[in-house]
Design a protein that fits this description.
This protein is an alpha+beta fold. Helix content is 35%, strand content 31%. The strands form 2 sheets. It has an 11-stranded mixed sheet, sandwiched between helices. Strand 12, helix 7 and strand 13 form a beta-alpha-beta unit.
């Protein structure tokens, strides 16, 4: 069940999309979400955000025992800690736990050549060497159809990755993005055979990398790296995006391509008026103290 608590102060308003499952409320997000945050409208002063959030946190405490919000991104706007303060002010036991990193680059007006010059030498050398002997062909599609989906799915199945847990959601994301002109599906071909695929979307001034995969039988020729090189060049020089966002996950390879890592956090809120929440709150706090978090 979806519920969207609302708070208003004058003309300013806030909404917190939530879903009820397994006896608790969680953020209306899923396995593929890049970030989560309340929706604010007509905010004139930053303190209004906290006042509005405190208002619906207090309302929720009258009926709910536990709320979990994830993924929260610390983007120098203080949003995760603001949420923690607001829920604590409303009487919740509110605990922020570090769950990983979100890797991004801010292009800041650079062209691709300038960006590429700043990448690690080993990565640039690999692209140079593999690119010389490559017989690959690059494509970028802005619509998803049945044939392309079949190729994408076959590449994913032949890759190093575990089976896609929710393939229908991935296809729906791609098709919806295609309908609004936001899809950029990169395909790398050896002749007619697709051997690598990357699913990107453009959201405002940000290019978001949702999925990457390549056929492991092609590992020696680094098709995934070459396709990434092509996609980054396209996004920076052709699409002229301001930011590229590599989504959730702290994979080591992302650090070769990206320049900044933002903390990705989970906010767990426990209602102390519900005794059954005391033990989960204690366990969450202990987990935080033994090193999984940098926020309290």
């Amino acid at each position: 069940r979806v519920m969207i608590p609302e708070a208003r102060i004058g003309s300013a308003s806030a909404f917190l999309p939530l879903v009820e499952e397994k006896g608790r409320l969680s953020s209306l997000s899923n396995y593929y979400s890049f970030s989560y945050a309340p929706i604010f409208e007509a905010i004139e002063k930053q303190e209004e955000r906290e006042n509005l959030t405190t208002q619906f946190a207090a309302d929720l405490r009258r009926s709910q025992g536990r709320i979990s919000l994830y993924p929260l991104i610390d983007d120098d706007d203080g949003m995760p800690d603001m949420l923690r303060r607001a829920f604590a002010k409303a009487g919740w036991i509110a605990i922020l736990t570090l769950e990983g990193s979100n890797h991004i680059i801010n292009v800041n007006g650079r062209n691709f050549a300038a960006y590429w010059k700043s990448r690690p030498g080993a990565l640039r050398s690999s692209v140079r060497r593999k690119g010389k002997s490559a017989r690959y062909r690059y494509e970028i599609h802005e619509q998803m159809d049945t044939a392309l989906w079949g190729e994408y799915f076959a590449i994913y199945a032949a890759s190093w990755k575990e089976a896609e847990p929710y393939p229908d959601i991935v296809r729906a994301i791609a098709e919806e993005a295609g309908e609004r002109g936001a899809l950029r599906l990169g395909i790398l071909r050896d002749g007619d055979r697709a051997v690598a695929a990357q699913l990107w979307t453009i959201e405002g001034d940000t290019a978001c990398i949702h999925k990457i995969a390549h056929d492991t039988s092609e590992d020696a020729r680094s098709p995934g790296t070459l396709l990434s090189h092509h996609m980054f060049a396209h996004m920076i020089d052709i699409e002229k995006v301001f930011r590229i966002d590599y989504g959730t996950g702290n994979n080591a390879y992302k650090r070769d391509w990206m320049e900044h890592a933002r903390p990705m956090l989970r906010l767990d809120c426990f209602n102390p008026a519900h005794p059954r929440q005391w033990l989960p709150a204690l366990k969450t706090r202990i987990s935080q103290l033994v090193g999984r978090a940098s926020y309290s």
